[in-house]
GDP-perosamine synthase
Amino acid sequence: MLSQDYDRIFLSPPHLGRHELNYVHKAIEDNWVAPAGPNLTGFEQDICHYTGAAHCVALASGTAAIHLGLVLLGVGPGDEVLCPSFTFVATANPILYLGATPVFVDSEPTTWNMCPDRLREAIEDRIRQGKKPKALILVHLYGMPAQLDQLLAIAELYAIPVLEDAAEALGSRYDGRRLGTFGAVGVFSFNGNKIITTSGGGALVTDNQEWAEKTRFLATQAKDPAPYYQHSAVGYNYRLSNILAGIGRGQMELIDSRVKSRRETYAWYQKNLRDVPALQFGPTEPALGSSNRWLTTVTLDPHYTTVTPEQVRQHLETHNIESRPLWKPLHQQPLFAQAPMYGGSVCADLFTRGLCLPSGSAMTETDLHRVAGALREILLP
Ligand SMILES: *Cc1c(COP(=O)(O)O)cnc(C)c1O
């Protein structure tokens, strides 16, 4: 059979359930198609209920949520913001929107997230240079909880407020608590490739009621309370539509089963590919952490193979299977060539050796066997 005869296996496609359409239908029937309405409120309540956050504001994207989150933390022109290098560019772009500078920090090899030692080093060095960082962005990459105990203790020691980019980590936990609720501000994304989706969307969560109100205000053009349009702050058009929030409500009914499925996919690959010594499964959960395993990621062990991740990717492509390199570190991006970086070898090595495997929650056992078979073809001598 030719590879074209197979259906394509995507990396992480949207996976809709049965109830999204009911919520969307109701919104149209009731004429609630603006960025306000019962789906929006309902979706925000669902997220609060699920995560334990006191307040949630649904927004047009995760990027918008990071942008407004940094505004809440007081980040402005000339400030420095600590940020992992090993992440998607959307984590750091809002730092630039605000005229601030990212200060990048390397990963540690267990969770692949920010290294506490490098973080301490970065903070002390910035202070020595006369400037304390204004905020710290923590990311839980691929859904994997960062070493929160250590990272939060350092942030607290230096009184640096934390924004938690949990865009990939809805449903993950640390010490029993949902990720996104550890920082002063937490952020989720409902982009099409994430564990649940609104087609495009995001949310900001916080326990600070004033901040939640300020976020709603800023996200709807910062209209002062007056009968005419009056503005004394810069506003944005960042609210999620009530239609899309309807998709989100249907998806939130399914979050537990989506997390279960992604975790099972990771376990399946790990079990069924243990005869392939070149494949190392990672990252690893920290002592108190549980990952939603948004994407199954692997690194190639150079002791067992000279094949590169790019060759594996191209080989999977001949079987009509999508895979993707790990995030290219931000300190290696032309966009951030001037930004300070603390460490760098850990995330640079992960990028050279790593690959994301298809991980969609609708994958069948047949799909998984197809991926495993194609990997065996190229990685077993
Ligand atoms: C997806 C993602 C974002 C941005 O979310 P959007 O909804 O796509 O704007 C931010 N950070 C990380 C780590 C992401 O994976």
Summary: The longest helix spans residues 255-272. The longest strand covers residues 55-59.
